[in-house]
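B., you asked whether I could sanity-check this one before it goes into the benchmark set. Here's the sequence:
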Amino acid sequence: MSTFAERVHAVVRGLPSGTVASYGEVAEEAGAPGAARAVGRVLARSDGDLPWWRVVTAAGRLAPHKEQEQARRLTAEGVACRDGRVLGMRR
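And here's what the prediction gave me:
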């Protein structure tokens, strides 16, 4: 059986370019509904090999203190961002 962190990594790695998912959606797909904050902790501890920028809050807010980098990466993938949020979240 894989750990929660391994399952989160697998879900995030599986997010195609140009899509976003909420922390809650990642938690649910990883088999732990309601563990959105834990997903954030897993991503914060990752070594940068994950497409972390594709994960946002349920309201579309970007990661605190990384808004500019996240918006730049998402925009490069065709995801519209404005004022620290993803516009028209799609998955």
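One thing to flag: The helical segments are 4-13, 23-29, 36-45, 67-76. Otherwise nothing jumped out at me.
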